[in-house]
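Bumping with the actual sequence this time:
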Amino acid sequence: MVKLWVKTLQTTYNASGAAAAARQGNVVMIVDVIDMSTTSEAVLEAGAITVLGASPDNNTVPVTVNPEKIGYFAGKKALKHDTTVIVAAEPRLIQNEKDRLKEIQQVLKGIERAGAELEEVVPNIGREVVELADFANKIVVVVSPSGGTAYDAAYNYGAPEVITGTIARTNNMNGSFAARVAAERAIEKALKFKRGITVVAASSNSMEDVQACQYICQEIINNGFLKMN
């Protein structure tokens, strides 16, 4: 008997929700409006090949994260594409580079273990990040305690694909268009893997993330993803 693929759409919260969605086998979209997923959108607009998320070194969450593994994967992708890795991390203040480096040692260890080159470490500041480095044809890792950690959890619990989405204005899109792009990205991956979609608010304490998830889900519905064929 042929198993029927039933399209599903869910919302959830935090790294624990991202991990649960991954265990269900869903495509997982991380929404961290301030700033991980907005940084991701901005660097993709600027020509980045791939954007990954990772947990800071000392971030405590109730699920398994492995930032070194994310760094290693980023490094291997960089070698495959004959390019370098850029890390965006916190704190957001540009002059606090020493503090940023303290929280990303596991990611840097993974990049080094892969044999790839770290080009630069920049602050995770959303759409303005593109003014700080050339992201064209680069692999990017965004290390942050909410969005990065949720991405890390989804990846390590085996999601078929982990992606990001935002409703924030970027350099090329206003908020409503950014949400449509996010919806289309989620649908494309769900159709590719024949899986459901879970949209994750990176922090349940962030009204921006929670409302953005609802908005993106409505766009996914408007695009006809849940319609019966």
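The tokens above came from a reply further down the thread. The chain has eight helices and eight strands.
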